[in-house]
From TrEMBL:
<dbReference type="InterPro" id="IPR029320">
    <property type="entry name" value="Acyl-CoA_ox_N"/>
</dbReference>
<keyword id="KW-0274">FAD</keyword>
<dbReference type="GO" id="GO:0005504">
    <property type="term" value="F:fatty acid binding"/>
</dbReference>
<dbReference type="InterPro" id="IPR002655">
    <property type="entry name" value="Acyl-CoA_oxidase_C"/>
</dbReference>
<dbReference type="Pfam" id="PF22924">
    <property type="entry name" value="ACOX_C_alpha1"/>
</dbReference>
<keyword id="KW-0285">Flavoprotein</keyword>
<dbReference type="GO" id="GO:0071949">
    <property type="term" value="F:FAD binding"/>
</dbReference>
<dbReference type="GO" id="GO:0005777">
    <property type="term" value="C:peroxisome"/>
</dbReference>
<dbReference type="InterPro" id="IPR012258">
    <property type="entry name" value="Acyl-CoA_oxidase"/>
</dbReference>
<feature type="active site" description="Proton acceptor">
    <location>
        <position position="429"/>
    </location>
</feature>
<dbReference type="Pfam" id="PF14749">
    <property type="entry name" value="Acyl-CoA_ox_N"/>
</dbReference>
<feature type="domain" description="Acyl-CoA oxidase C-alpha1">
    <location>
        <begin position="283"/>
        <end position="444"/>
    </location>
</feature>
<protein>
    <recommendedName>
        <fullName>Acyl-coenzyme A oxidase</fullName>
    </recommendedName>
</protein>
<dbReference type="InterPro" id="IPR009100">
    <property type="entry name" value="AcylCoA_DH/oxidase_NM_dom_sf"/>
</dbReference>
<dbReference type="GO" id="GO:0055088">
    <property type="term" value="P:lipid homeostasis"/>
</dbReference>
<keyword id="KW-0560">Oxidoreductase</keyword>
<keyword id="KW-0576">Peroxisome</keyword>
Length: 660
């Protein structure tokens, strides 16, 4: 084992709590930690899953080929785990998501959509016979699928998709067509050259009538040769800001025929077309992915904050006092302000993600028995948590990259590619503004009719929050009550402005659009009250943890609360009876909390227990040997493999001569 950096050794001695206790708490128990370790060992210690050359130095094509090689090994190993009866959801979550997934495939996995959307759509939308026909092939990976919904012309407005599936009663087939350039499918992961099947979302036509969008299972490529099927036009969409191994593709249809039975029929029971009880049941896979993405936000944030916090303990810079040694940069309070709120935020997202996951499972259970009442609340919550979680995560990763100065800009820090993964989440699975407007739509409806509100756990606070008006106290409960009042006031005001505009003669839709900046802000505030509420409830409910750990979690909870409140200072002053002096008190409380957390900062990120291979960072490794690792990474540059590059002879030398 490499020698541990002296600063980190000192930091670890300062820690006031048992880091293993926190690790077990975060994992859900010691058994779960051991399970995770064994899973990490199974994947990360497999030499086949390592790359010989850093990805950054490969061409676009080579990156893709290396990603396919690794994804196949990864999926084979997932199947081995399933066969051994160890195939729980945690496996998929970690292998496809922010931890193991991004460690093994730093720039994305071209086969992810198979598990994340193709299989869940067959399960959620296929009837019994269809599941019997397709699930075995999909689970055993005899076929590899993707989810082809978005088109060149439409991603958000899915009712506007143009791909058509027209029923031909003579042959009992659907005929798929892409009538325009804008109707080409565009974006689906793995569609370019990896998947041989897809769920295709298309407008269903029977007897000349359009019945709206429906999901179909479509074969794209020959199962033996992988050649595109006749009538299928397919390829990759090209280079992106990040995720360059995910093989996002395009797809067009020319009179492409599929059997009638390939229309997923769970909600259309008989062979003729029957309208489903809610057209939104077709959108179920999107809710599922939004829910799991919130967990990914916590994972990426933990990873980035571990890298930046360890680096900040090792890095020394400037003089705080004359003639004193250069301090660790973690001792600058501005630096603490860049790091510690994101440590706290990781907890907030993990706890809310876990609540959301439970609510999701309850509501999908209800849907199976035809109960739809709780779907709107789930949809509204999933939309805002996905939007706020991914936005805070991407902004957090960027702040943490900046916190690492120049070295944060190196790909060897792994912060640039983590940002590439995090910022993509803000767009895919529903663009964030659009999702916040979905939440706002629900909140306005609730505001206009509060009859049933006490049965709706995520919004029942709106019943009386408008009049909280509590005077300032240094407590989380005061901040929560103030944030709830802000959310209620913002919803109330947006509602009033819509009504005013309608009264002035505007169409409701125009009034909505003109009020939409306020609506987005209202949904954002609502989401932040939920995040704080759940963090608070979770910490208060921990019964059997040590007082030392409880104290640390309370510090983090308070920091999250105060940081959120300070970010919303304007709102507090505008909508609650907070006054200037209270804001000053909040600022002092924030500074006090940063100082309290400072000695435990390394201990807390150590408790995240993220293996070096997962961090993938010269700046964040457990041993803190930052400079040695940066130097070693630089040696991997192909330019350093020869003392003089051929460009010298070709261009530089003649150029230098010409300038003599
Ligand atoms: C069994 C499974 C085994 C496998 C296990 C796997 C486990 C994996 C676990 C973890 C893995 C984690 C790893 C994650 C890694 C992820 C990597 C992913 C890679 C990339 C994936 C990206 C994929 C995509 O992007 S797919 C495309 C996504 N597209 C979108 O999201 C489009 C966004 N647009 C929309 O959703 C909608 O069009 C809209 C909501 C914006 C508008 O729709 P609309 O016009 O039809 O609706 P209205 O505005 O008119 O509203 C009508 C009404 O409906 C309500 N509504 C809307 N949507 C929903 C919904 N989804 N559910 C319920 N209700 C909905 C809306 O609120 C309105 O209600 P009213 O009552 O007000 O009328
Ligand atoms: C990395 C990545 C992977 C993806 N993977 C897949 C995949 O596997 N399968 C798939 O089908 N799709 C996939 N997508 C597509 C993705 O789901 C869409 O890009 C996303 O839903 C946004 O839609 P859009 O591109 O049409 O954006 P647009 O809707 O065109 O958004 C552009 C701007 O318009 C605004 N806007 C649009 N509508 C409204 C409105 N109603 N009100 C206010 N503002 C509005 C938005 O806020 C945004 O600012 C992927 C995308 C990315 C980036």
């Amino acid at each position: 084992m490499a020698k541990i950096n002296e600063d980190l050794l000192k930091e670890r001695k300062k820690c006031s709590f048992n880091t293993a206790e926190l690790t077990h708490l975060l994992d859900g128990g010691k058994d779960k930690t051991l399970e995770r370790h064994s899973r990490e060992h199974f994947f990360l210690d497999d030499p086949e899953l390592r790359s010989k050359i850093p990805l950054e130095y490969l061409s676009h094509k080579e990156k893709y080929e290396e990603a396919v090689r690794k994804s196949c090994i990864l999926f084979r190993k997932v199947q081995e785990l399933q066969e051994a009866g160890k195939g729980g959801i945690e496996n998929f979550r970690e292998i496809l998501g922010g931890q193991l997934g991004s460690a093994i495939l730093k720039d994305g996995n071209p086969l992810t959509l198979h598990y994340v959307m193709f299989i869940p759509t067959i399960t959620g939308q296929g009837d019994f016979e269809q599941q019997a026909e397709w699930m075995h092939k999909a689970w055993t990976c005899s076929i590899i699928g993707t989810y082809a919904q978005t088109e060149l012309g439409h991603g958000t407005f899915i009712r506007g998709l143009e791909t058509t599936a027209t029923y031909d009663p003579k042959t009992e087939e659907f005929v798929l067509n892409s009538p325009t350039l804008t109707s080409y499918k565009w974006w689906p992961g793995g569609l370019g050259h990896s998947a041989n099947f897809a769920i295709v979302v298309a407008q269903l036509y029977t007897q000349g009538k359009c019945h709206g969008i429906h999901p179909f299972i479509v074969q794209l490529r020959d199962e033996e040769t992988h050649m595109p099927m006749k009538g299928i036009k397919i390829g990759e969409i090209g280079c992106k800001l990040g995720m360059n191994s995910t093989n996002n593709g395009y797809l067009g249809f020319e009179n492409y025929r599929i059997p009638r039975t390939n229309l997923l029929m769970k909600n259309n029971k008989d062979g003729t077309y029957v309208k489903s009880p809610s057209s939104k049941l077709t959108y179920g896979t999107m809710i599922f992915v939004r829910v799991v993405l919130v967990q990914d936000c916590a994972s990426y944030m933990k990873k980035a904050v571990t890298i930046a916090t360890r680096y900040s303990a090792v890095r020394h810079q400037s003089e705080m006092k004359p003639n004193c040694p250069e301090p660790q940069i973690i001792d600058y309070v501005t630096q603490q302000y860049k790091l510690f709120p994101y440590i706290a935020m990781s907890f907030a997202f993990q706890y809310s993600a876990s609540w959301l996951w439970d609510i999701y499972n309850n509501v999908t259970g209800e849907l199976e028995s035809g109960q739809l009442e709780n779907l709107p609340e789930l949809h509204a919550l999933a939309c805002c948590l996905k939007a706020v979680g991914t936005a805070d995560c991407a902004a957090g990763v960027e702040t943490l990259r900046l916190a690492c100065g120049g070295h944060g800009y190196m790909t060897a820090s792994n912060l640039p590619s983590t940002y590439g993964l995090a910022t993509a989440m803000c767009t895919y699975e529903g663009e964030n503004t659009v999702l916040l407007l979905q939440t706002a739509r629900y909140l306005i409806k609730i505001w206009q009719n509060k009859k049933n509100i006490q049965n709706l756990p995520t919004v029942r606070y709106l019943d009386n929050a408008l009049f909280n008006n509590r005077s300032y106290e240094k407590s989380v409960s005061w901040i929560l009550s103030a944030l709830q009042q802000v959310a209620a006031a913002k919803i109330d005001l947006a509602n009033k402005h819509i009504n005013d505009r309608v009264r002035q003669g505007k169409a409701y839709e125009d009034a909505w659009n003109e009020t939409s900046i306020e609506l987005v802000a209202a949904a954002d505030a609502h989401c932040r009250t939920f995040l704080l509420d759940i963090f608070n409830l979770t910490v208060n409910n921990f019964q059997s943890i040590s007082p030392e750990l409880k104290a640390v979690l309370t510090d983090l909870l308070e920091l999250y609360a105060v940081h959120t409140a300070i970010r919303m200072t304007g709102d507090l002053l505008r909508f609650t009876n907070t006054i200037g002096k209270d804001v000053e008190a909040l600022q002092l409380w924030l500074e006090e909390l940063l100082a309290k957390i400072r000695p435990n900062a390394i201990g807390i990120v150590d408790s995240f227990d993220i293996r070096d291979e997962v961090l993938g960072s010269a700046l964040g490794a457990y041993d803190g040997n930052v400079y040695e690792r940066l130097f070693a990474e630089a040696q991997k540059s192909p330019l350093n493999h020869e003392p003089v590059n051929k460009s010298f002879g070709l261009y530089l030398k003649p150029f230098l001569k010409n300038n003599l």
